[in-house]
Structures
1.
Amino acid sequence: MMRPRWRKVLADLTGNPVRTLLVVLSIAVGLMAVGMIIILHHGIGEDMHQGYAAVNPANIQIRVPAVERDYIDHLKKLNGVRDVEGVRVFELRIRALGNQYKPIKIKAYTSGDRSVINQVRLLEGRWPPKKNEIVLEANRLGDTRYRLGEEVEIKLPNGDLRYLKLVGIVNDQTIGADAGGAGFFLAPIQGYILEDTLSFLNQPEEANLLLVTVDGDANDLTYIREVADRILDDLDRNGIETFGTVTRRSIDHPNAVYVDAMTAILYLLGFLVIFLSGFLIINTLSALLNQQLVQIGVMKTFGATRLQLIAIYLTLVVIFSLLGLIVSIPLANLVAYFEFNALAPKLNYISRGLRFVPQSVLIQAVIAMIVPQMAALIPVVRGTRLPIQQALSGISGSQEQQLSRFSVWLTRIRGLSRPAAISLRNTFRQRVRLALTLVTLALGGAIFIGTFNMRASLENYIARLARYHIADVNLSFTEPYRIDELSRVILGVPGVKAVEGWATALAQTVQPDGRSGETVLVQGPPDDTVLVEPIMIKGRWLLPGDYRAVVLSEVFLEHYPGLKPGDRLRLKIAGKEQDWTIVGFYRFAGKNIGLTAFTRYESLAEATHTYNRSADFRVVAEQNAMSLQDQEALAERLEQTLADKGYKVQEARAGKSLKQRTTSGLDTLTNFLLFLAMLMAIVGSIGLTGTMSLNVLERTREIGVMRTIGASNRDIMRIVITEGVLIGLISWVISVVAALPVSQALSRAIGEAIFGGAFPLEYVLTGPLIWFGVILVFSTVASILPARNAARLTIREILAYE
Amino acid sequence: MFRNTEMSASLQDRSEPRGEPVIRVKDVRKAYPTAGGLFYALKGVSFEVKRGEFLAITGKSGAGKTTLVNMVTGTDQLTAGEVWVGAVSVHQLDEDRRARWRGENVGVIYQSFHLMPMLTLLENVMLPMDFCGLFHPRESRERAYELLKQVELADHAYKLPSEISGGQQQRVAIARALANDPMIIVADEPTGRLDTVTAGVIFEIFRKLAEQGKTILMVTHDRQMARRVDRLLTLHDGVLVDGNQPA
Ligand SMILES: Nc1ncnc2c1ncn2[C@@H]1O[C@H](COP(=O)(O)OP(=O)(O)OP(=O)(O)O)[C@@H](O)[C@H]1O
Ligand SMILES: [Mg+2]
């Protein structure tokens, strides 16, 4: 038989199932949030690392004009090289939905059908494709209308159409591996062919991209770079120019940066949810101890020491925690399961599904054993400290007895109906409880609103990045044309307001030892450009008189600390090394995109020997603030006109397409944040339900009195619900204010993680407005149960209540 | 460590011969802080109770009766003076020691019963044994059952307090007070909430306990009862008016 004191613990547990449920749920929600995040972090991390390593990803990718197969065989013998594969990569256009042509990046395997590096996984159809057949990648397949067996229409730069049979659909985890963080989201549609199809697409047969795996530690970046240097030296010796080198560890999935950015913030929010559920425990236990003061007095009378009493109540909390754990562990796994499946296609990794993550269970257990007990300690110590006589009188001190000055002041508010006045005054009776409830609700709200602000800021930031590409349509050609001549043609197209011909080149930084370093995209707009509105960090923008001056993106500052305006930068452009003067640094997309630089058109045209000519034209439309669809229509019109006149268009890209893609990548992140904010709102609502239940319970007598003087069920329910909604509304006001610092912190954290720097914060009304609706619904729902309980009390029960 | 000394103290008390003073109250004062300053509910009360004595305390409402017995049970802190029970100076014990001492040596009975609402009658009686640990859990269960039998409630052992009448509840409270076999029983108006017939039954139980050698301190308003005890103390505005023998 159980000892009486443990029987009492059990009775407290089962005697008030609603209270037990509320406490257990509020503990469980917090544990679940952290548990789920741990499962996701570990699971996605594992899937990304192992799944990526399993495709035998290239550790080194080097872009070259063209190399022969013999040379590739020679490279394989180099020290530290395990395998080399030469592929030809090029962009054409594919007919997508409707009549539009979208860019397609085609990868041709030039070493027969072997593809041992950067392996793709067949999802449907067959692999490898045969002559004049193509395989498409699944991720952007939705942008096209093709199904297996259909003829894929490819447009060549000269306007000719080619038809390739779609025989397979694959998944390629290496998309974006040759670019910075957002590479995957910026990548066009991907296609795969074999080398015998190259001539059909008017492409030369030599490889222009070397995929290299290293022999040795493929997860040691320093070592990989050493091997890369060895290859670059060899290329140099053999007179083969290089356009860019990317090194990457075998476990570094291209989208891992997003996961890393997410998890840091998610952990933070997860622990915040725990913190909030701690508040709920304090609230509920304070009320529980208040209700049991007489019992505590009795137990003390019959010999219970404080330690025994504390043990009794902490045991109760331990049981609450264990129950919470029983709920949270499967729940965390369930939610993680859905997230696994939802995130895998968005982040382009292969989910191996749910698995047991011991850390998740362990950490949930540790938190469950510590946090609720700590939270409970405050009310338990206070409740058991009360002198016996005071406890037996059932009064815990000043709280309920004396009305605060504020409560007295509230009585001066005139013109309220009686019930409304009761609701209003009741709201402020239990001030500590009210404060804790408000904190919980307001914090959830602040994060909810903050997430919206952060999202708006991100979008705004990306829009600001678009200030370097303001054009409505970017036209690129396979060969340079005279600017004045082509400008006339373009201006003749209806709807075009202005056009600029830019110089662009891929340059290489030259290291002190003479080796070529990183690739830099250099752009040279004309002096009178209206298409760049830079955000300067240091120094100044270009001036018409400048000679061989460059402004650099902020990534330079990270890669070359100490670089400052006035310094010289040695660049290799079109095979020639020259010193350029740095005049300033501008803010661009941070880690998201590699090194970029701007210079005057004149300087770059001189370096590339394309004076007065350009292959890169930027078009401004007459219509202001064009939509993506309008831009795409204009692009199509321009392309048609130019192709008809015999110009070799490589691509006509709508200005907004870039922004749209980048945003969609970040949506994954913001949706997750919203999910967590909703969890907090749920914790808050549970807290509110608890608070309202306790309020009702403590006022049972008053409710009885109101009944005897004629209050109907509806009157009593209305009084309780009004009080709950009032608390919700107060919390809304607080959360709107608290959202300011929360938004700041969120966007700083995300900015650091993704862009390597904070981005300017934007405040939008969407968050507060939606939260207003949410809180209204939540607080009403949270008050309904207590209100119904209050209305259901019969006079007999009320008189029996002690 | 302190438990041992108390245990031995209580054993020593038990062995004291009948007639020796077991409770000694010396010039006890109790002040309550009120809005108008300190209010003295006890203004220097002194008396002794002999072992096995059945003592009643009467007085008007507000005279200080409850305050006085709280000083003896140590459920409240005195302002000045001394309270000795056997060799223990109650006023000098800290709260936890006092709780343990009281649990073992004093059986307290309240006017409003104060049973634990969610424990069965049996468990209510077992509770003091549970806290003080004087009896093995199995033993305590048998003992509780015995005590319920004594107050003629063994049949209801597994009921909850809300399922029995007020008089029955008070009998359970008496059984609970006897749980650790204390030498002193302190009851504050134990019959105050009961009708005359039921009150009579309760009083008879006290009488029997007194005959068995328990020292009993009982607050009562009932003149009939007051007349049938060994000694009667009357409190008036915080002072004892006379220590007259029952008429
Ligand atoms: N906690 C307290 N604070 C202030 N004054 C108190 C407190 N408890 C009791 N008193 C006052 O002390 C005096 C004695 O109270 P006490 O409860 O001891 O009286 P009593 O004789 O037991 O009365 P009753 O027969 O009504 O139970 C009374 O005047 C009472 O108002
Ligand atoms: Mg009294």
2.
Amino acid sequence: MSETGLYVYGLVPRGALERAPDLPGVDSARPVELRCEGGICAIVSRVDLDRFDEEPLRERLADMDWVERTARRHQEVLDAVLAACTPIPMRLCTVYQDDAGLRRMLDEHQEGLLAALTELSGTLEWGVQAFHVPETPAAPPRPGGQPGETASGTAYLQTRLRQRHAAEHAEAEIARACEELHDALSGLALAARLGAPQRPEASGRDTPMVLNAVYLVANADRARFTQRTAQLGSALAPRGVALRLTGPWAPYSFVPAAVGGAR
Amino acid sequence: MPGLEPESLGRPLSYHRADMDPRGGGPANLADILERVLDKGIVIAGDVQIRLLDIELLTIRLRLLITSVDRAREMGINWWEGDPMLSGGAKQLQSENRELRERLARLERTIGVGDGETMTAKDE
């Protein structure tokens, strides 16, 4: 039997979960468990240190299939908690050697973590992505103009110029639409952040992503937020913008920097 | 279960992942998950955690893979440039790259293969 360590998915206030989610963990489907210290419980599962110690992990991080599987498991465990409470999500592959090490961490950071848990309590993260759906592109100008016409360099250049102006106008219009969208949704959120848009290969859409935003929304405002997003989606469609709403997520983007978060 | 609508009770929330794309639904997009679990989850080092450098390098690679950098710049989004860890890492990779190319060029000149100067200039 090889030694095991504790892989940590996230932290929740003690008492918020009756029991750990009934889900397989990241390693060999070992069950997810709770480990509590003071006012905080860590959501953990045992992992084989043959596979999850520093050296083997470094090799496995190069294996994208493994990274995907692990990231999805990590995510599913946190998802399962969302109905009961808002967890503080840990970064992928945070591993403690034993209970004592984990308890020491929870003890040392107790105050800051409790403050963060209180601050995030009753909130969830939502993602809104906007895509530019271009209208049917105009046919490229042909140097010959109308069939049978003699080629006219001037006419060709004028057509090109008109097209360029139209494209610039469309781009400005899309940027304006994104700004309005972000303003409207920020108004319903406790906090908002913009990220870089994803490439089409990553987003799975063949139209360009023009906005990649995340919002921290109070659970009480959840319906208002999702309905407003749907409304804005309908309103923006004729302007060439399609929306994608994702969530709810654990508040990854809104954990205070004071406890090692992104905000 | 405070604050959530009744219909979400007792069912896994992943089925509730709202997605207004009629082609969407099902499991969450991998890019959306990686953006979060690699880049945003909190960092309180475990005692067996992979050294931060490793996960950061992976994150840089994934960010480049996931995000459309040119498009982001056009829109004036340049958060990574204000991120000392990330821009530092990226700069380090760039300088390592340059150094390697220069060494290769010198070696090629020494053994008389290829045109080292042109190669260095072209790839910059």
